[in-house]
Amino acid sequence: MNQSISFCPWEHQCGCQCPDYDQDFDQAIAKELNAPLTLEQIQHTNITWFASLEYDGDHFIKDLGITTQKGLYIIWNKDDYCPNHQLFQMTALYVGKGDILNRMVYHVKTKDFGENINLYATYLEFPNRIAKYVEQLLLDLYDFPMNTFENYGEKPLYAFFTQCEVD
């Protein structure tokens, strides 16, 4: 489920940012919560994808097998591929918490994610209090373009998925 990204011996020649792994989240949560949770776990747990935004949101999200778990979720756009590392660059668009299935159906129906966009999601089950904390920490550190409230972060959040993770 959690896979370590193998670093390319040619990373300095490649020029891409695939091997980069931001440490701000891990440092803050370790200091503030003393919890065994990392950004990599959030990015690579329960990966699912949206076939198309043209379909009814209830239909294709429920077909993915997401239960009515409560927790934290991130909606991602697959926007690039690095052939040197064989990784897909994902950009975080939205972070949320609550009833994962119902919230994701709502977002697909109400948010304008644009056309020809490849949406994925990652999610983790948490008690509401922990999900709320983790969501706010992510919003404080990173810019989520589709979040309109309490989105104080300035840098984008990227994840890098393997071919297996995007299939």
Structural description of this entry:
The protein has seven helices and seven strands, in the order αααβαββαβαβββα. 27% of the residues are buried. It is α+β, with helices and mostly antiparallel strands and 167 residues long. α2 crosses α6. It has one domain. A five-stranded antiparallel sheet has the order 1-4-2-3-7. The protein has a two-stranded parallel sheet with strand order 5-6. It is 32% helix and 26% strand. The protein is globular and about 40 Å long.
Fraction of residues in H or I helices: 25-40%
Q: What strand line-up does the widest sheet have?
A: 1-4-2-3-7
Rg calc: 16 Å
| Class from secondary-structure proportions | alpha+beta
Précis, in short:
This protein is of the alpha+beta class. The chain is built from seven helices and seven strands; from the N terminus they run αααβαββαβαβββα.
